[in-house]
Amino acid sequence: MPSSKKKPQQPAQGEPSNPTAPAVETTDPQTNKPNIVDIHTHMYPVSYIKLLESRNTIPLIRSFPGHPEPRLVLLPSEVPLLSNPSPSHPPGRPLTEAYTSLDAKIAFMDKHNISISVLSLANPWLEFLSTSPDPSSLLEPALRINVEFEVMCNQHPGRLYFFGVLPLHPENTLCALPLVLSMKMKFKHCRGVIIGTNGLGKGLDDPDMEDVFEMLEEDDLPIFLHPHYGLPNQVFGERAEKGEYGHVLSLALGFPMETTVAVSRMYLSGMFDKFPKLKVILAHGGGTLPFLAARIESCIRHDGYLHKKEKEGRGKIKRSIWEVLNSQVYLDAVVYGEVGLKAAIQASGERGVERLMFGTDHPFFPPLEEGEEEWGSVVMNTEAVNKGLGEGSKEARMVLGENAIKILNLEKP
Ligand code: 5CU
Q: Which of 228, 364, 375, 381 to mutate to test the pocket of ligand 1 (most atoms within 8 A of CB)?
């Protein structure tokens, strides 16, 4: 179905979608500070909150005795804690207005000098509905959520854009396709889609994902690939399972590994070769891909099975993982430190600094002390850019905002 609707030629990868757009202002003329663009910033719109409130398995919202705020319990690693919640430290995180209120988002942006945010629904998107026997039952919530994001963007022209959500269901890609097709027409602020690593239930190397990738490629809608599942609890051991280490292992290690595995599977299955104009933005600086790309290359080169397959003419991955990183993959700069930042830039090639985009992961990782207004996650990610690239340098301004404006075709602030 998708192949029948070829569109006019698209801009080459990495080129601005609108080459005639005026040069991007990288500094606010009034404050002389760089225009920060946050491409990794989440919200849960009202309809999604209602969905979570109606549930009694994870993901859900639940109140616990002695705790004034309801809690958002999301992660698979929290399942054991939910069945036996600790009275002093129940599972999940407090559902503050930072997750739901547009005013709170704008206040956060103003506080941290963020001119533009590209909002996205946070994990686990609509994946928990994919057990429904009726694939089309995901369409209505997906549409509604996208409409809610579009309405938010309309309230703050020039400051907000969003990555839409897709109704991905194991039984039926056709459910997602009409929405992809209409995304640009319906939602003028939509700049791509956020998806998890599960795809239609079998990961992103699943041949059934090809229709979805093809449409996203044709419509020049980048994928923002974000983790949710992490690694199985057993990997982290009993003490982690009992909650002794909080969320540290699942978020710091499980999330990035999940992204790395997902994108490596896409690469090994030849998806990037099949869809050479598909753009994929990886969350958290690409997980661990910048560090492990050379090892992946080496394992491919030394793999007897792949070697034989290639000799017999049964398929070859056309480009190295480095070439894919330099042409189709973009990384966010949510890495919290200079070492990770430099690795992400180097892994992205000679012009790697053009492929990194600043993010905050707001509203996750809030300040924990009462009255603390500055978000440490923003400070750490900004400092990583300023220290790694030089405060006020052209490169720092690119990563902090200019790249996102070009790559995602945002209006200058
Ligand atoms: O703290 C967390 O659980 C999370 C999460 O679920 N998703 C995310 O993007 N960051 C942190």
A: 364
